[in-house]
Records
---
Amino acid sequence: MTKFCAAAIIGFRLFVSAEIVQAQSWVKPGELRNKALIDAGLYTQWSIPAVNSRSLAEHPGFTTTHPFDGIVVRLLLDAKWCEEQGFDPNPDDPPQNQQPYLDSLVWSTHTVPYGAVESAIEDLKRVQWGTLTDNFVWYQFRDEGGSPVDLTKQNDWASVQGNAVLTARVCREAELKGIFFDTEQYGYAPMKLGTPGLRRQRGQQWIEAVQSEFPEIRVLFTFAWCEDLDNTAFLVGMKDFLNGVLDGVRAPAQLINAYENTFYYGQSPGSRFTKKGFAGNRTQFASARSSIKSWKRLSGAADKYDHFVRIGMAAWLESDPWDLTPG
């Protein structure tokens, strides 16, 4: 039986009407067992000042009071290495955002050496985590190094594999649970290249590379097996890659299908995505959980899906009105 693992992609401030609160009972402690609420977005991706591997180490008051079960961390790369590679800082960014993070290069032709992340690992070892026990490292397709990957070229793919091994090593040495893999391909879509068979092969090679360094790793996907994979432009080709991951994954690793579209549930009227709002209730989430379990039919191996895939959902907390990032 697939266990339920609640994972939250947290944006910004939550609005819930009094009418909805009165209609829904509070969650009971028993319902929260074996579940984790992960902060990914708020303070981790868009905030200024940025929260990253170094700032977490330098500000224990943040981690020891942060009211979640885990957080997704961006790893700051060594400034001297970045300078040697010719990465120019964005003058509009604050100082702590001016050098690339590991997640901005993992899907590029830049092979990041261990020396470029060594200080970030040491910083993470100094963090006073408090209640943050289920922590992940951010991992994404967005290429900020200006060197996009062509999956059909072996040299390009070797860089991706090397960076995947490095990311897994960071997780193992810093005692993080694993990788938070944002599978959305905005402006950069490596999964549009190659054949379905090649993409599936790359998925298997990717998870094998990751587990060669960290066999117990957990990989949390923002979009994994779901109906959206076949009809959403920024997810084109991902199903082939994911089926390859499922082909190659071995115990004791876990894959978390954290369906991001549940973040629509509970949005207030007038939000970015709806004028009327989405009511959000237990029935919707229960239905989503059932759907995620049934999506094994979309995978290449239903039996392995049941064995390795856990269930996650997203909750979005709004800003007022959606004004945190430019535009």
---
Amino acid sequence: MTSTMNFKDLTNQIIHNEKIKEDYLVPAREMVMNDDSEIHFKESAFQMNPIARTQLAARLQIPNQFYQRIASYRDLRSDVVNRLLSEDDRTFFFRTHDDVGRAFLSDRYKPIDNMQVLAAASPVLRDMPIEFLSASISDARMYLQVSFPGMEGEVEVGDTVRYGLTITNSEVGMGMVRVSPTLWRLVCSNGMVRQTAIKHRHVGRQMDMGEDYGIYRDETRLADQKAFRLKLQDTIQMSVNEAFFEDLLGRAKSANGQTIEKVAATVKNVTRHFQMDESREEDLMDALAIEGRPTRWKISNAVTGLCHKTASIDTQFEYEKIGMKIIDMGDREWKGILAA
């Protein structure tokens, strides 16, 4: 992943976001949409970002294609949304930064904020021999990536990989807290993110609403935060495991022994299987041409290399996950992608 900030920048951004955030529990009947994208309740008004708009449509069971289409007709989207809100008995959890609505969620959503994750992870990582690699915050997620210089091996002569971890969190309902084993290819700094080693869901009991719609930080929430902190710290420590690294290294070596004969057709199958844009086929072909002998390992690295061709942090992370999925999938599934 292309880093957009260092660890200090990440910390400062999270502290800033904590200062400007507000959370509200709002009855649907008290919410009104104006100008097709602005939500009002009481004396507050918030311009919703794309994530919040999509979540609003999903909560009201408005098909996304229809929701996007009616935006071209002035006030039609507002009319549809307001009619549905006026007849809805539910209460929603609405998250904001300043005057921007960033999430429209169920009142059972249990926030695990980036500050909690950083506060829990920092003491553990500080005591480990790590190299800080990447940190980013998008509207959807926070990303923190580190590697362990003492855990390295060669997939083939001259092709060294290093073990690391990727820690992610979403404050807006776009995923669970994740600590994922990661394999870094040092020759090109590409990373491959394996599926998570921990899952902490942001769902709890239905929350109580205060008169000002605010979310109170009570003793129960503090206890939950402590339990989460201990669980995350234990997971990080357990994930720094030589056996995990050896397993990933063994899979990479095995994949490197699987030669691809029909490269163009296999590349096309990869883009289709993982629902990637067709325009990426040429980029993958160019990367494989540089790699030399085309193998399953090399095509996985060609995919992760696409991180350097997109500015979207979230898309970069998806490419890193796809790269590891290619290595992790069973031989039968890979044969379904490999062109005969």
---
Amino acid sequence: MKCAFPTLLLSLLSPLALLAQPAEWGVTPTNAAGTLLGTVTVGGQAAQAGDWVGAFDEGGTCAGAVEVILNDGASFISLPIYGDDATTAGVDEGMAAGEAFPLRLWRAATGDILFHPDPEEPAAFGGWTATNGAPMPGFDDAYTVYDFGYDWASVTIDCPPPVVCLDGSVYNLSATPDDGGWSGPGTMAGFASWFFDPAVAGLGTHTLTYTSADGTESTCTVNVVETLAPFLSLPLGWCQGDGPLALDSLAYPPGGTWTGDGVFNTAGGAVFDASVLTPGTVALTYTVDGPCGGVATAGLSVYPSPEPPTLTPLNGLLYAGNVAEGDSLAWLIDFENTGDPTYFPYTDSIFYFPSWGDTYTVQVINEYGCTAQSSSVFVDNTIGLDNIAGNEPLRLWLDEEGRLQASAELVSVRWFDALGRALDGPTGPGPWLVHARAADGRSVRRIFAGR
């Protein structure tokens, strides 16, 4: 987009009210003037707001000075250059016909005075002409570039790391020279320095820009990512006989690495095997790699498991042996040998009247809650079940009213408690043992837990 220079020219041909340019740039307007139009650059970059351009005669008198005009990223000048007033003999107000004039630029940001094209070999333009303030021939193109040599300062910036954590530390921002300022998401000025706060910037990739006093810009990018602090949800303890503990599902975020005594990395993931350790407390560590990862460590107690008990048939009863003092036990009964055992509310080491056709297992529990099981024992009804070939087993059950029912007519029913004492019927909390005999000679023992 081009500037509307005629309007600008009309405003700039009037006597100037000088702003902040150096005092020696004072201009004495006269009735003889010619205007220079052009585009001003400094070291190849557009001049900045507040910069001034001045024209000087061969005697060093400032014959014209104006502030640059910024428009659409470019900087322009419409510079009236005044001639000498013939009525004031002995006073040099400006240019004589045909006199050469150099151009200088005053940098508002730094106070430097620059020369065209450079300070080593400043050039002077010949052919000043009084044109009643109109653009002078040869100087009437607003897009003629007048570049002022400038040795841009080498700017060094100290940025945050390329990747930082959202809840990470606030970073100190610094630059050399330190006469400028920072801009961009998360940047903020402190008392005597600048800072970058990842939490203020937010997630994503951000561009931070440092602009020195002379307008030099330097940038860097910072990627703010979510913090992945590990979180563990280990059990309080693990028994030596409980088998491997799968670890990967017990940590967040996924993808980390487990280390510690008893830890093994398998094709299915990391596992903890307490059986290879002695009882005590072991430290397990989970590490998430990456700039925003972390390490979490938790203690896991290794508890001793009891020795497996023995289960022995003895004179029509079952005896649970090898149970350490202080350990408790529980019985599991697979009624009718279906493969689905259930816990039975009986804790004595002797099961006095096990029922025929069922499978028994005993489990011991130590003070740590660790368990071990015996081998299973099937109680064979060699007397009551097989004495009549081809007959189905005699079956007993309790109906909804708690009354004993049988799959055949019974001729004998006897009730016993868990210690083998005879009862008149299903009295007390149970369990009860029923010994029943049918009219055809079949017999059966059945345990009921009570109601």
---
Amino acid sequence: MIRGLILLVLTMLAGCGEISSSFDSRAEAELIIRKGWLPPAMPESATEIWESHNLDLNIGRGGFQFGHEDSEKFRAVLWPNSKSSKCTIPWSEMERDKREWFRYSEFHLAVDWKNSDVKFWLCYRDGV
């Protein structure tokens, strides 16, 4: 009986992993954008898109590249962000890479404007 209970608990925990996906273009990623795992503000020129999310914790992370020609339009829809978020983000690593911090809805974005590269984190719950 106890072995069966332990096996059941372990089986349930095994289902709590992360789900990942990657896309070559924003058009290919539309379904995941609509599901809320990629930032809707992502430029049309986005490529090398990847994301990983955990449904149980309601958190995610990812990144993408974008065309330099979209820099101004992309920057215009982002909100300045501070490090006050309780979201688990590698702040010092992103600062070392000289990225600027922004928000878009529940997304925290670290943007490298020189290389047109974005890393993002998604935290629907405070304290995660």
